[in-house]
Amino acid sequence: MNDGGYHRHMVQQALWQAGYSPDDEAKRTGLQSFWAELFEYDVDRGENDQARSYLKAITDPYQIVRLRADKRYRQALLDDSRYTDKDAVTQRYLDYVRAQATAQPRRIAAMHMLAEALRNSGQAAESLAVSDAALAKVNSAPAGQPAFDDLVDNLRWMLDTRAKALSRLGRWDDALYAAQAARDEAERQKKDTASQAINLGEMLYRLERPQEALRAVRDMNENTASPYGMSEVAQVKACAYAQLGDKAKARAATDSLLENPNLDPESVRAALLCMDDKDGLAKIILGRLEDPLTRNYELASNQGYAPRPNLTPFLATMARRLDDVLHRPDVSAALARYGVVESYAITAPDDGVW
Fold first, then answer.
1. Which SUPFAM superfamilies match (predicted)?
2. Per-domain residue ranges for the chain?
3. What is the distance between the alpha carbons of residues 201 and 2, in angstroms, rounded to a whole number?
4. At a CB cut-off of 8 Å and minimum separation 6, what does 170 contact?
5. Mean pLDDT of residues grouped by 10 in the chain (354 residues)?
6. What are the two backbone dihedrals, phi and then psi, of residue 222, each rounded to the nearest 5 degrees?
7. Rounded Cα distance, 248 and 229, in Å
8. d(C-alpha 32, C-alpha 150), whole Å
């Protein structure tokens, strides 16, 4: 999270000046929130021309959304004609990740990013096709001659992406199987086992299988997961216990999230929606909008994104509850005070805007 700290800004500046660009496409995309923060810093100081120099490194449409949504930065962004057309921004990103996948044929991470972008732009079938093509190469490669150079770090994420594409197509049984495969691959490699176990737990509670969701994360603790990961574990527990009718345990898990609500705001949101605590969620949203450091992340979370297709009944209930909160007079007034809410052809990001 952006804490507004001087040292954070200096690190970002040093990375920019060094031209830092990791080989892993997923990590490269993750840096774009840093460049967006540098843009904000210079706009706040009235140095708009310098600020716009960072835009060349921001291709992720969700980072553009958060700048576009915030009245402090909207005009400085839109003064660059490349960002006036929302659909053109999305298409440029699709073109970019497609080109990266072509240019990096030995990196499954590049294929993973293309599959993610296709899914988020409403092309779930195309996303699945990209995942399946990459996995077919993995499975057909001769022993000792892997199809990609980064399978140890990124095969599990391609399997995870495949699960999400299948869920968008309404193939929930297949999606669950793919999520289990991602978890199994993480355990086989002994790499970030927490993330895939948590993602499996999230899918299980969305399918209203709370006992299985709890079993998926039962081995997670401070020694096996990061503080962020433990926030996601708390989300799974809050939602699973809410489905089981155990209000005390659901509230305890939610309260643990509320001790640091900005560590993982998407998990806070999910837990409060699972609890049907609309007042609690409205309070969180209002607080994040009032805080200059979290404002445009919250604005970006509440845009008019394209609806996700083939929701489970429980996810449909969650969507209705969120819509109720966003249309409360106090919340809608705060959104209008600080930002602009627009319609987008892309779906909301699975893990929030960071």
1. TPR-like
2. 1-103
3. 28
4. 309, 310
5. 72 89 79 92 93 92 96 96 95 96 96 97 98 98 96 96 98 98 93 91 98 97 93 98 98 97 95 98 98 95 96 97 98 98 94 52
6. -65, -20
7. 22
8. 22
CA–CA dist 138, 329 (Å, integer): 52
Q: How buried is 236 (Cβ within 10 angstroms: 0-12 exposed, 13-18 middle, 19+ buried)?
A: buried
Tell me, what amino acid is at 89?
A: V
Give the angle 284-200-104 at the CA atoms, nearest 5°. 95
Tokens of 186: 């993480």
The secondary element (H helix, E strand) that includes residue 343 is strand 343-347
Q: What type of residue is 326? A: L
Q: Where are the alpha helices (DSSP H) in the chain?
A: 6-17, 25-30, 32-44, 48-52, 61-69, 74-78, 86-103, 108-120, 124-140, 151-168, 172-189, 193-206, 210-217, 227-244, 247-258, 265-274, 278-290, 295-301, 313-326, 329-338
The CA distance from 258 to 44, in Å, is 30
